[in-house]
Amino acid sequence: NAGVTQTPKFQVLKTGQSMTLQCAQDMNHEYMSWYRQDPGMGLRLIHYSVGAGITDQGEVPNGYNVSRSTTEDFPLRLLSAAPSQTSVYFCASSPNRDRDSETQYFGPGTRLLVL
Amino acid sequence: GNSVTQMEGPVTLSEEAFLTINCTYTATGYPSLFWYVQYPGEGLQLLLKATKADDKGSNKGFEATYRKETTSFHLEKGSVQVSDSAVYFCALNNAGNMLTFGGGTRLMVKP
Q1: Residue of chain B minimizing CA distance to A32
Q2: Chain A residues with CB within 8 Å of chain B CB
Q3: CA pair distance A99, B69, nearest whole angstrom
Q4: Cross-chain residue pair B97–A31, CB shorter than 8 Å
Q5: Are B97 and A33 within 8 A, CB to CB?
Q6: What is the C-alpha separation between A42 and B76, in angstroms, rounded?
Q7: Which of A90, B1, B96, B103 makes the best surface tag, with the fewest CB within 10 Å?
Q8: What is the per-residue burial (b if ≥16 Cβ within 10 Å, else e) of A67-106?
Q9: Which residue in the set B32, B44, B98 is minimally distant from A48, CB to CB?
């Protein structure tokens, strides 16, 4: 099992450019989510999905789009990058929404710099 | 709403010292509580968790007890090692699988 994988590891964008951060998991997890990590603010939830075809907004969704066409993949799209989106992005997955299966498995992160 | 507050770092300790990282929370109902650890250059890993009041989570010598009366989940370790140097995040889960994180506490252990 590769677990949760993310690509790229590091990316530099210019303001207004678009890009997609990739996330994949091979554990057949139903639940997937995207967080951003900023200094002193912990991780904040951007979007999440409880299964293929179902997505919803988290705490800080503005400027980001997601889709979930398969169980394995959950890409995060920035349509028009802004400097405020400079951050480290983590994808996570977990088996289901049952209260006893709350452990989330995190990918290694994507560091994004928007100039 | 939900919130998690943890002590600001960095916390710098000598090897074999006692560690406490404070964490308090605000939530309705009965959240589950977690400590995650992030080693340099890596993603977060679950360190321990507790799902109800008075539960004690433990792993790798770390412990934390769910204290509902004080809404706290402080992380402790009796003797830290250099390899424990990392950033520690306290978090809660109050609905589905959405985690609310504290700001993180960086721990540096010197030999």
Answers
A1: B97
A2: 4, 31, 33, 35, 40-45, 48, 50, 58, 90, 92, 94, 97, 99-100, 102-104, 106-109
A3: 22
A4: yes
A5: yes
A6: 20
A7: B1
A8: ebeebbebbbebeebeeebbbbbbbbbbbeeeeeebebbb
A9: B98
Contact B101 A104 (CB under 8 A): no
Contact B98 A90 (CB under 8 A): no
Taking an 8 Å cut-off on Cβ atoms, the answer to whether B96 and A97 are in contact is yes
- CA A45 from chain centre, in angstroms, equals 8
Pair of tokens at residue A81? 């990058």
Scanning the structure block, which residue is given the tokens 């299964």?
A51
- Whole-number pLDDT of residue A98: 58
Amino acid at position A110, single letter: T
Contacts of B8 in chain A (CB under 8 A): 40
Residue A41's DSSP bridge partners are: none
Radius of gyration of chain B, Cα coordinates, nearest whole angstrom:
13
Structure tokens at B40: 């340099």
SS3 B103: coil
Strands B11-14 and B105-110: parallel
Count of residues in chain A: 115
Which residues in chain A land under pLDDT 70?
A: 96-102
**Closest among A92, A57, A89 to A74, alpha carbons compared:** A92
Question: Which tens digit of pLDDT belongs to each residue from B4-54?
Answer: 999 888 999 999 999 999 999 999 888 999 999 999 888 899 999 998 899
CA distance B95 to A91: 19
